[in-house]
Design goal:
This protein has 308 residues and is of the alpha/beta class. The chain contains six helices and 19 strands. It binds NADP nicotinamide-adenine-dinucleotide phosphate.
């Protein structure tokens, strides 16, 4: 029986682990399918405070892990498939194990939705395909890039990229953006952004060194194929929160994000169950905001356990 189990080892989970461990709660941290979370898929992090020269995603996550371990966090590599939050002792089940705890911090993150096309996985990361303009945009100084998607994220990514890139193609599968009006207006008015409507990306094309040289498009209007030359492909077609095990026990919104209790960012409607990071936050989705939520969740957990 544990005091607190933390699900996830991204910025939210590991920050929660540091705080819980320093509060002597000896948290058990269940790592999940992507130990270290989304940052481990980013080549360099330049916007996390304290690293003026930048730091690579793997290193920063590994440092957080070591920091949490130093104060007594324990790690286990497992993947929770179902939960039972109906009693005061909370139960978590993976394929082969079950766990019991007084409190739980859910920091399972979200996974970017991908296109599932040839070249996408092969060139993901340092080779030109990415899902985060804030993380990787600065690497495309004076280059032409493509952003795929038609929602607020795609507009936000395209607008952010105007700071660095010479030209941004915005590839959307329809002839109308889904994003909020203000974002649509800003995006379409920007002289560096060139929308390509009614177009589906069929493949990411490599150059001789295996880096992105462009994308292949299928026009949904004419059925014709074409190529767009670009050095970077920013996929912004939404995220899928990793919240499947909680569908029957917590309040989720339409997109599957855990909805916190009114008046709090990290409390759920079940006492002793807290959330942090991208499994709940679909607005900011930054390493630093996830870390902040992890800290809040740990402090709430500590106070709640002390009251019991
Ligand atoms: P979203 O609103 O779900 O938009 C996803 C976009 O990707 C849509 O345009 C969709 O096309 C397209 N898409 C989805 N699957 C695709 C596929 N397989 N191939 C090609 N295109 C595909 O996701 P989001 O933009 O990440 O936004 C998520 C939520 O966060 C929204 O509520 C949004 O308002 C919010 N958000 C807010 C801000 C802000 O306020 N600053 C910033 C970012 C996000 P269709 O339009 O054809 O469906």
């Amino acid at each position: 029986m544990e005091n607190v189990i933390i699900l996830g080892t991204g910025c939210a989970g590991l920050t929660a682990a540091i705080y819980c461990a320093r509060a002597n709660l000896k948290p058990l941290v269940i790592e999940g399918v992507l130990p270290g979370g989304q940052l481990t898929t980013t080549s360099e992090v330049e916007n996390y405070p304290g690293f003026p020269e930048g730091i690579d995603g793997y290193t920063i996550m590994n440092q957080m892990r070591i920091q949490a371990e130093r104060f007594g966090s324990r790690y286990i590599n497992d993947n929770i498939k179902s939960v039972d939050f109906s009693r005061s002792v909370k139960k978590l089940n993976s394929e082969n194990n079950s766990y019991k705890s007084n409190s739980i911090i859910i920091a399972t993150g979200a996974s970017p939705r991908m296109l599932g096309i040839p070249g996408e996985n092969e060139m993901f990361g340092g080779k030109g395909v990415t899902t985060c303009a804030t993380c990787d945009g600065a690497f495309y100084q004076d280059m032409e890039v493509s952003v795929v998607g038609g929602g607020d994220s795609a507009c936000e990514e395209a607008l952010f990229l105007t700071r660095f890139c010479s030209k941004i193609y915005l590839i959307h599968r329809r002839d109308e953006l889904r994003a909020s009006k203000i974002m649509v207006d800003r995006t379409l008015a920007h002289k560096k952004i060139f929308p390509i409507w009614d177009s589906q990306v069929e493949a990411v094309l490599p150059d001789n060194e295996g880096n992105v040289r462009g994308i292949q498009l299928l026009s949904k209007k004419t059925g014709k194929m074409s190529e767009v030359l670009c050095k970077g492909v920013f996929i912004a077609i939404g995220h899928i929160p990793n919240t499947k095990p909680f569908h029957n026990s917590l309040t989720l919104d339409e997109a599957g994000y855990i909805v916190p209790k009114a008046g709090s960012q990290v409390k759920t409607h079940i006492p002793g169950i807290y959330v942090a990071g991208d499994c709940s936050d679909h607005i900011y989705r930054q390493a630093i905001t996830a870390a902040g939520m992890g800290c809040q969740a740990a402090i709430e957990t500590e106070r709640w356990l002390a009251q019991q």
